[in-house]
Amino acid sequence: MNLLDRVIASFSPRAGLRRAQARASLDAMMHYRAGSVNRRSGSVRAVSGDADAVATVARRQISLAVRDVIRNNAIAERAVQVLVNNIVGTGIEPKLVSEDTDLNYAWPAVCRYLDSTDVDADGISTLAGIQRMAVRAMVTDGEALVVFPDPLTAKSSFQLRVLEADYLDDRLQGRALGSKNSVYDGIEYGDDGRVVAYHLYDEHPGSVVWHPDWKGLVSSRIEASRVIHLYRPDRPGQRRGVSWLAPVLDDLVALADNDEAQLMRQKIAACFAAFWKTDKDAKATGIPSKLAPGLIQQIGSEDEVVFASPPDVTGYDDFARIHLRRIAVGLGITYESLTGDLTSVNFSSGRLGRIDMGQNVEAWQWGLVMPVLCQPIGREMLRSHLRDNPRSGAALRQARIDWTPPPPVIADPKTETQVSVMKIEAGLASRHGEIRRLGYEPGQIDAEIVKDEETRRSLAALKAPAVAASEEADQQKRERENE
């Protein structure tokens, strides 16, 4: 304690104790180098805001910048494709789980409807296409909106429409009109902090289509039960998402700039120039103005020819590979998936990298896309079926819809299949569980196996008379030969 602390402690021991404790805590914190910003960490900005306070200004700008990079950078487009293909692939398939015979009988017709473009309110995509579009928007912009049209005005009782996050009327902040609910970036929250409604523009505010009623500037209140807000929460309490490409945006831009600079270096290096030092007139000496293959030219003893030294173009591969690896690591995918470069990969290293990436994909599927996007779609499917068939209410309340992700990519199918068989035989896993892990529906597999067995039996029954007749003919032939 210094002199001031002793004086304060003599008059107020409690105040002196608080000062001593604060000083001890400060001294302890200074032992962490990360707790102080020095010369080497001058670019670090230590802010105390929550996730939305930190991103509220930058979120929109990041989204616009990422869109521009994806439009003009093949690596960025490839990264988005890898993420969407691994998370959604050909679609996360729904499966009705119910003991009601009528519901199970009507389910194939529902599947055919989901595989048609009628499920899209815009009439463009199937259910799998809607899933891909929503996940792509989440990766690119950080968030996506899936809206169920009003069943009272829609042409079909169950349809979906994917919207970009630009539809959120972020001009609305504070209190909702005529209500005690609070509004943040066009999202309305109740007293308990849960979302109760979304304020969405009637048209994209940046649309090139001009409407006389200014739909791009007018927003409507839509109940939260009709909206799916898909985003990845990176911090507790986060209300909106940030583009997945935000941590690697600088590397993508630096890589593109370096490509342009490297291309210019290649052009300069391809230039071969010669400089002729002389005091004579070029026309009088007959020195050619350009070099040509097989040229033999005589010059005077007082003339001098100097050749240019173009820049070296080596070292580009190492630079590009470092940035590409940083981009792959920042997105949670492998370098090989991002670039398609398999030059330095063997089977074991590729499989290990794929396992690590597979864990990320499963976490995104089971912890984000399926509970946030797919399960609300399943609940809305059951509600729409209830509206169309009110008498099946009891069966629908007991029914549910499970979702099966697409089959994962297997590096060694033989080994993986043997491992699954060993786990089933040892009682460590069920057959249905292993089938689901491979991305297939057990009930459908069982039905196909039964159907194949019936087909084999039918073919065997048809083949039996012909086989018997052939055997009888062979027997008669052998008897005649013996006679």
From the N-terminal CA to the C-terminal CA, the straight-line distance is: 126 Å
Please count the helical segments.
Answer: 16
Quaternary state of this entry equals single chain
The structure class reads: alpha+beta
Quantity of strands, as a count = 12
The chain-level mean pLDDT equals 81
Residue runs with pLDDT of under 50 for 5 or more positions:
none
Shape: extended
Nearest-angstrom radius of gyration? 35 Å
Work out the strand percent.
Answer: 5-15%
Strand order of the largest sheet: 4-5-6-7-8
List its traits:
12 strands, 16 helices, 483 residues, alpha+beta, 51% helix, 3-stranded antiparallel β-sheet
Summarize the structure in words.
This protein is of the alpha+beta class and 483 residues long. α1 packs antiparallel against α2 (13-29), α4 (58-72) packs across α5 (74-87) and α8 packs antiparallel against α10. The N and C termini lie far apart (126 Å). It has helices at 3-11, 13-29, 51-55, 58-72, 74-87, 101-114, 127-141, 249-269, 282-285, 316-331, 335-339, 347-388, 393-398, 413-425, 431-437, 442-482, and strands spanning 93-97, 143-147, 161-164, 174-175, 182-184, 187-189, 195-201, 219-223, 227-231, 274-277, 304-307, 400-404. Among the domains are: 8-33; 272-309, no CATH class.
List the helices and strands and how they pair.
Blueprint: H1 3-11, H2 13-29, H3 51-55, H4 58-72, H5 74-87, E1 93-97, H6 101-114, H7 127-141, E2 143-147, E3 161-164, E4 174-175, E5 182-184, E6 187-189, E7 195-201, E8 219-223, E9 227-231, H8 249-269, E10 274-277, H9 282-285, E11 304-307, H10 316-331, H11 335-339, H12 347-388, H13 393-398, E12 400-404, H14 413-425, H15 431-437, H16 442-482
Antiparallel strand pairs: 1-12, 2-3, 2-9, 4-5, 5-6, 6-7, 7-8, 10-11
